[in-house]
Amino acid sequence: MKILLVNPYIYDFTAYDLWLRPLGLLYIAAVLKKYTACELYWLDTLDRFQQGAYPAGDKRAKKTKPDGRGKYHREAVEKPVIYRETPRSYARYGIPFKTFSEKLNKIPSVDIILVTSLMTYWIDGMKITIDTLKRRFPSAKIVMGGVLPTLVPEDILKNHMDVDYLIKGYGENKILEFIKEHGGGVYSYPDFSDIDTIPYPAVEFLSNKDVLPLMTSRGCPFHCTYCASDILNPRFLERSADKVLEEIYFLHDTYATRDFVIFDDALLINKQKRFLKVFQKVSETLDVHFHTPNGLHAGEIDRETAETFFKSGFKMMRLSFESTRSEILSMSSDKVTVRQMKTAVENLEAAGYKRKDIDVYLLFGVPGQRLEDIEEALAFVKGLGVTPHLSYFSPVPGTIDFIDLQKSGVLSTPVNLYETNKIYFVYNKSGFSFEEVKHIKDQAAVLQML
Fold first, then answer.
1. Hey, what domains does the chain have and what are their CATH numbers?
2. Which helix (H) or strand (E) holds 148?
3. What is the pLDDT of residues 92-127, one digit of tens each?
């Protein structure tokens, strides 16, 4: 049996490669390699380091930062009708479509195509990817996994794209059952409920191994009203410190990897048994760097934790704060108070970080937020001397906030996936005028340059 694994295009108002890697798909590939007789093929439209990722003369190709971040190739496309009044351009992000077609033509006929998904509003990217795959491999069964099938009802998805099967939730066990049911050879069926039994992600499929993804846990024990982590991950699962260390050493020794990107939603929870054990050991044995594009829980950053971050090579420090307003903080399970944020910054500075190099996520456009709320939060961040990053609110299907917005009539029922786009929502559904959105964006931009 031949299987093609695909990471699809992004269609959006904006997209930037902040070390975005299809980690779930890499885990599925690893399971298929280890436990089946299938022949695997890989195509990642968002891999900026593959041959043909940029057309000749595209200046974005030369703007990759030393740590691996950079701009995708971008091609302007027509906006969906619902976005016509949103004052931002719309584009396809990823390798040139010609490159995509050429790579597909080099792949022999396949039996099954596995397509992953992430943002619920990247449906146009999913659709053009799947339609192209259908034309190239008309007899192949297309299976979608990832975020979309887990959060969105099947009939809504089927209205947008022509897929044959959907896999909801964790795919490691389910994909083996699916392969067996469709005539593929499966060697065994491990119990992946123990997260330590899942094989390392198949990073050999990535073009650039200088920067590789790392997971130390899945999910989050908090229940923020705007977040779907507890829907996507019904249980908070933690890898053992020994297994995480083993993987870091393996990747470093095998690929000479010196930059690792951690996608955990709750890296610092139970830090004594996982975070501190792993990274204090790393600080003693390796000269590497770590990056945390997901927000860190500032309330967990005591002096020991801050020193561990600094000594073990954490470069990008992004803290989750959300707001200074108590009503909005309660929506995020009161993860961090104003006092805790101040203490976290003080501890990080004492450990060796410069305040301007500490980033803080602030929610913008969240239901019930007033203009003065976000202005106050920006002023607080300015007072701390750290760098603000606006985190645009996106209504995620299944979350408490999403359901409330549907009940109040702000969002459509049944769900319109285009309405879940964060840029569209802030401009059109948050209650802020276009002028107010521009005002806040300009304020944040000024603070980022200070």
1. 2-181 (3.40.50.280), 209-393+430-449 (3.80.30.20)
2. helix 147-151
3. 999 999 999 999 999 999 999 999 999 999 999 999
